[in-house]
Design goal:
By secondary structure, this protein is α/β, with parallel strands linked by helices. The chain is 38% helix and 24% strand. α2 runs parallel beside α4. Belongs to the peptidase C15 family.
Length: 175
């Protein structure tokens, strides 16, 4: 079996949230991956509904990386205040900044509702991104990692967001 691209998502963390848009999108990708073979998606691995706690989420993802040895990793989180998909350029922990090794301008060049962000949020999303980038670096893994923040999905944006996200997956498969 070919090595998959690992996709991760979070569960909710606030009482008003009925779902987490990162998991909603990953669930849609999972469904499309199994039902629409014309999409030409690469093999995918899924780690859904991570706890919104940095150490636990990081541990789960790092263990999954060791288990499946993915060709690439796309971690996703919800950004309620954003209106587009955003790919994160860096993760910070204290004074240490780890940058994405991916040419993000090239990655998003043909995408319609995706932009580059330089603020991963100072919450569990940034903590997870930092932990995974650090793990990849210290273990000298050849698996590029990207963090994508997902806006709240609506009837108005879901098709464009899904299309851009599928293109991100396809481009990550070529790295």
């Amino acid at each position: 079996m070919p090595t998959p691209i690992l996709l991760t998502s979070f569960t909710t963390w606030l009482p008003h949230q009925k779902s987490n848009s990162s998991d909603d999108l990953i669930a849609k990708i999972h469904e499309l991956h199994h039902t629409n073979h014309n999409l030409q998606l690469p093999p995918l691995g899924f780690l859904r509904k991570l706890p919104v706690e940095t150490e636990q989420a990081s541990s789960y993802v790092i263990n999954k990386i060791a288990e499946i040895q993915p060709t690439a990793i796309i971690c996703c989180g919800m950004a309620e205040s954003r209106s587009q998909l955003t790919v994160e350029s860096k993760a910070t922990c204290g004074d240490i900044v780890l940058r994405s090794p991916i040419d993000l301008k090239q990655l998003i060049a043909e995408l319609s509702v995706t932009e580059i962000s330089h603020d991963a949020g100072k919450f569990v999303c940034e903590g997870l991104y930092f932990a995974v980038l650090n793990h990849i670096t210290t273990q000298k893994l050849n698996s590029p990692c990207l963090f994508v923040h997902i806006p709240i999905l609506t009837d108005e944006n879901i098709q464009k967001v899904t299309k851009d996200f599928i293109l991100i997956i396809q481009k990550m498969a070529l790295l």
